[in-house]
Amino acid sequence: MSQSQEGVSRRHFLTATSLGGLALAAGGVTLPFGFSRIAAAVGTSVNPPEDKVVWGACSVNCGSRCALRLHVRDDTVWRVETDNTGLDTYGDHQVRACLRGRSIRRRINHPDRLNYPMKRVGKRGEGKFARVSWDEALDTITNSLKKTIARYGNEAVYINYTSGVVGGNITRSSPYASLVARLMNCYGGFLSHYGTYSTAQIAAAMPYTYGSNEGNSTSDIVNSKLVVMFGNNPAETRMSGGGITYHLEQARERSRARMIVIDPRYTDTAAGREDEWIPIRPGTDAALVSALAWVMIGEDLVDQPFLDRYCVGYDEKTLPAGAPANGHYKAYILGEGEDGVAKTPAWAARITGIPQERIVKLAREIAGARPAYICQGWGPQRQANGELTSRAIAMLPILTGNVGIHGGNSGARESTYTITIERMPVLENPVKTQISCFSWTDAIARGPQMTALADGVRGKEKLDVPIKFIWNYAGNTLINQHSDINRTHEILQDDTRCETIVVIENFMTSSARYADILLPDLMTVEQEDIIPNDYAGNMGYLIFTQPATSAKFERRPIYWIMSEVAKRLGPDVYQRFTEGRTQAQWLQYLYAKMRARDPQLPDYEALKQQGIYKRQDPAGHYVAYQDFRDDPDAHPLKTPSGKIEIYSAALARIAQTWRLREDETISPLPVYASTFEGWDSPARRDYPLQLFGFHYKARTHSTYGNIDVLQAACRQEVWINPIDARARGIENGDRVRVFNARGEVRLEAKVTPRIMPGVSAMGQGAWHHADMHGDRVDHGGCVNVLTTQRPSPLAKGNPQHTNLVQIAKI
Ligand SMILES: Nc1nc2c(c(=O)[nH]1)N[C@H]1C(S)=C(S)[C@@H](COP(=O)(O)OP(=O)(O)OC[C@H]3O[C@@H](n4cnc5c(=O)[nH]c(N)nc54)[C@H](O)[C@@H]3O)O[C@H]1N2
Ligand SMILES: Nc1nc2c(c(=O)[nH]1)N[C@H]1C(S)=C(S)[C@@H](COP(=O)(O)OP(=O)(O)OC[C@H]3O[C@@H](n4cnc5c(=O)[nH]c(N)nc54)[C@H](O)[C@@H]3O)O[C@H]1N2
Ligand code: SF4
Ligand SMILES: [Mo]
């Protein structure tokens, strides 16, 4: 708690009488600092004095993480400010919260917050609950868990992907690292998953090229001449003042690097800061890259020495033994490979919607600007052919030798500097079987039919049992965030399939409605925890949060909840789970370990006082694969050959052995392939518009989605180009139906040239709002009514950006 620090500040504004006096008191630093003090001073003059100001953090999964200063009066948070420490110069800048974090008081004090444990009384999904005691709730969970494991084994217990508190350490919700996982690992284990909804395709694919999935730090753009962004929108997806959007701006201000944004939408990242926006048809980036390669090869613009020394499979010279003749990349591009098609700009123009001349110019521009920071967000890979796309985009820095150097990049998304963190240990899972994080609905519906070769089951040839028990702590992927909500409803509402669902939440979300037992959690800002930065360029930090208020109603912290279940599972389980420590003792124990590894860290009490501790990357900027670039023999990559594998023999083997459908492609080369529900799919006859759900500033997924001021500031709309709107008689602001064979969503249309013709989009994460026992039409604008549960071929990941719909005026 930062009471003493705040006490000093408060004395300043109680004695200061003018703006000048205030600015002086604040050390004459930045305007926002002075302003917030004035606001506080005005507040204190008309209201009773506040009791304290407490350091908190916004710990949602937005890829940033922000410090909050919670002003508390009468045991209630009544005002929220953000980081005000340091001189606020770039490199020691303030980690300022975005409007979501600044509105957290409205989440903390929301009238709809869950207050008591509840059990389901109606049909599953109907949303009928009755209040029960904690004892009854915990006993019920324990008995169901025991029964499930006795009858089906530990593999029938699943911990769903959830990211609501991904920022926490003790409170962390990430399924790999949560206290739920720790508990299950103390009790025989659980069916786990690989991959995430965020990065399934790129995280599966990139390692075939590079051995890992890393990018340069965004701050390294200070050394770049050109920035090329494929479907990357940090102005909306990394919004913190300590986040990537700030680094991008500051670094470009210094390097004056040109910026080209390649995205079906004119994004907030472009928004006048770009030098050029190139709209592209979703799912076709690999075609664009192929044509760029065609121009570069034809005009002798490729970095041949780099390709010869560092890469495998660019041309005949480095094609691995066992690969087919002309199986190399150059042959593929020039039309001498298996398909016999030259990847000319004319060929790509038809696929991507980008004019040929622009493709030629872009190729010359990229090859001529060194170093170039070529990167991708995760939008392009959240497509049904996303594995191919992510590796294809990486070809541009590879062809131009931009990998492993300052100001360059690998083609992946940025990496970040992180301060030493010692995670709450989750122990080892005795169960080795895994499914992809996206295929859990299938594992309920047809678990024992799922195999390694057809469905990506790992650790076993096939699943033996379906999922019978689900833990869902701090997540909304049971309904809202998982694809094809209407199908999910069918699967979940039948409680003879998955027999028990436990949801631990703050709100009655669409997922919470499917709980059998629903438990009210404390929020991170109501607990003690130490929270590291997420994506933050080259300035890492730690935030030490303290409980802003006491625990209200019967809300309980996750550590207590899991300890109580452990206790009911037996004294040995309880002992293994807690190791005899309280939550506070765990934190001290973990922090002591951190300091042992990193003696520069402030001591525990000092960190508690100062709330946030920042440090710049001592190495300057992170450069992905720099060691390898400097000395490839001494520092080989983690690929089988130790080199950049443009041709991957491992993928060639998978392509031969896995069971794939007609319209699915796994290839040793980063080729372009069309896919199900793409721009050229026959289904376009009925559903002519492509649709995806971008990550939206109104919310972090669904979190903050119930905050009125944010809803008003950033409306939930479907973007549609004026050409497509006119053809349908739709005007800006009209209510429309967006539908396909899976369902229907109703919301307002945003008619705008900011999206290319033939494509539509809406912010993902809006709260699903439908009568599931009636017409099932969603009035909340939730894109997942329209998305498919069919996984992508290699990662078995979520192709949630690959959809076809029709839009009609209501
Ligand atoms: N405000 C806010 N920030 C967030 C989140 C949030 O919900 N709200 N979520 C966080 C999380 S968990 C994640 S995983 C990240 C997600 O980060 P991303 O996955 O990068 O975000 P998206 O908006 O899905 O996609 C980025 C851009 O890709 C574009 N795009 C879509 N398909 C294609 C394509 O085929 N080709 C090209 N070139 N572009 C395409 C979209 O228009 C969009 O502008 O964001 C994080 N940040
Ligand atoms: N169509 C489509 N769907 C998508 C995506 C997309 O791009 N398109 N993106 C996908 C991606 S990348 C991701 S990461 C997922 C994210 O999906 P989720 O991980 O489900 O993320 P949220 O929707 O934010 O849900 C987090 C939940 O945690 C709760 N919560 C927040 N704080 C706390 C707390 O302190 N305690 C407890 N117990 N609960 C808390 C919130 O109320 C909220 O219900 O969505 C995926 N779904
Ligand atoms: S939503 Fe993200 S950027 Fe906004 S305050 Fe929270 S952590 Fe920071
Ligand atoms: Mo994500």
TrEMBL record:
One of its GO terms (biological process) is anaerobic respiration. It comes from Cronobacter universalis NCTC 9529. One of its GO terms (molecular function) is dimethyl sulfoxide reductase activity. It is found in: Cell membrane. PROSITE patterns: 4FE4S_MOW_BIS_MGD (PS51669), MOLYBDOPTERIN_PROK_3 (PS00932), TAT (PS51318). Residues 51-112 form the 4Fe-4S Mo/W bis-MGD-type domain. Its main location: membrane. The chain crosses the membrane at residues 12-35. Its EC number is 1.8.5.3. One of its GO terms (cellular component) is plasma membrane. This is Dimethyl sulfoxide reductase. The keyword Cytoplasm does not apply. CDD domains: MopB_CT_DmsA-EC (cd02794), MopB_DmsA-EC (cd02770). Keywords: 4Fe-4S, Cell membrane, Iron, Iron-sulfur, Membrane, Metal-binding, Molybdenum, Oxidoreductase, Signal, Transmembrane, Transmembrane helix. It holds the Pfam family Molybdop_Fe4S4. It comes from the Bacteria. InterPro entries: Anaer_DMSO_reductase, Asp_de-COase-like_dom_sf, MoPterin_dinucl-bd_dom, Mopterin_OxRdtase, Mopterin_OxRdtase_4Fe-4S_dom, Mopterin_OxRdtase_prok_CS, Prok_Mopterin_Oxidored, TAT_signal. Belongs to the prokaryotic molybdopterin-containing oxidoreductase family.
